[in-house]
Amino acid sequence: MQSPGIRDFGVHRFSSVDRPESDLDQLAVEEPLEIILCFRRRGALVRKPISITMRTPGQDQELAVGFLYTEGILHRRTDIEAIKQEADSSVSVTVTVDVDLSRLERHFYASSSCGVCGKASLQALRMNREIRLDRSRPKHLVEFLLRIPSLVRAKQAIFEHTGGLHGAALFNPEHELLRICEDIGRHNAVDKLVGAELLAGRSDFSDLLLFVSGRAGFELTQKSIMTGIPFMVAVGAPSSLSVQLAREYGSTLVGFLRDNRFNLYAGTDRVVGN
After folding, report:
1. DSSP per-residue string spanning 79-104
2. Are 245 and 111 in contact (CB under 8 A)?
3. Residues with catalytic roles
4. Which residues contact 226 (CB under 8 A, 6 or more apart)?
5. For 257-273, what is each residue's pLDDT tens digit?
6. For 117-174, how does the pLDDT look when each residue is reduced to its tens digit (9 = 90+)?
7. In angstroms, rounded to a whole number, what is the distance separating the alpha carbons of residues 252 and 230?
8. Domain segments of the chain as ranges
9. Contact assessment for residue 232 and residue 214, using Cβ atoms and an 8 Å cutoff
10. Would you identify the CATH topology of the domain 31-127?
11. Is the pLDDT at 116 greater than 80, yes or no?
12. Is 169 helix (H, G, I), strand (E, B) or coil?
């Protein structure tokens, strides 16, 4: 059975020497998902749509929970009263905590190419959760870091078929790959990953390493730090704001992790020689 994240399309294949050939190509699906936050105010249930994101279908509930957690609306798994897939393109999350309506007026909006507004995300990072990253752990050998891209690629089922998805993965201090999630949006893949771990019962991310298959944009660094993950590695380049944020919070940030090399931009104490 084909994954809901893959769809077949007819295509004409061209080359420099041959006539075009008709064929089928497998592409990553991109569709909108609306995230609705539900909470009680003066005894009444309030429903407030807070995000529309272009995502690859699958793990929609995990995506919604991860988004709310990395934006500082949820602080723990027990804040969730109910999660409901209301339609193919909508997920509602009912929370038990009081919600600051003024914060929601910043109108979350995300797409597959960019995360939420940087200024608003900085406010979420600095106002909504006390963040203390242990600068002494986890530590990882250079040799292990160099192996991470191949370890993740071997588990990227949809990427293997389409070549069009980003992957995010979590590793523990014993170098075990705990979970991998894929999505057409980098930030969605991370939210799915965080949400899946929360729903599985995890409450502490402080000894984990986050891998992302694309560039280390600010929105990914923000999500990593908000989650309490102290170590992030990326196949692509970091942005200047990502490096500044990682250094401010004591997070380890690795970029250009490919072709048996990488650059270390922040958190040097967690990387050790072989």
Report:
1. GEEEEEEEETTEEEEEESS---HHHH
2. no
3. 114
4. 69, 70, 71, 72, 124, 125, 129, 131
5. 999 999 999 999 999 98
6. 445 555 555 655 678 888 889 999 999 999 999 999 887 665 444 445 788 999 999 9
7. 6
8. 31-127, 140-272
9. no
10. Ubiquitin-like (UB roll) (3.10.20)
11. no
12. strand
DSSP 206: T
Distances (CA, A) of 206 to 45, 46, 87, 138, 171: 34, 33, 35, 8, 11
The two structure tokens encoding residue 85: 């897939």
- Write the single-letter amino acid at 84: K
Within this chain, domains 31-127 and 140-272 share the same CATH topology: no
End-to-end Cα, the chain, rounded Å: 43
- Would you call 97 exposed, middle or buried from its count of C-beta atoms within 10 A (0-12, 13-18, 19+)? middle
Helix (H, G, I), strand (E, B) or coil at 200: coil
Q: Which CATH superfamily is domain 140-272 in?
A: Cytidine Deaminase, domain 2 (3.40.140.10)
Residues 6 or more apart whose CB falls under 8 angstroms from that of 52 comprise: 32, 33, 34, 35, 109, 110
Contacts of residue 126, Cβ cutoff 8 Å, sequence gap at least 6: none
Tokens of 42: 């003066």
Residue 263 half-sphere exposure toward CB, CA atoms < 13 A: 11
Q: Is 191 left (phi over 0), alpha (psi -120 to 50) or beta?
A: alpha
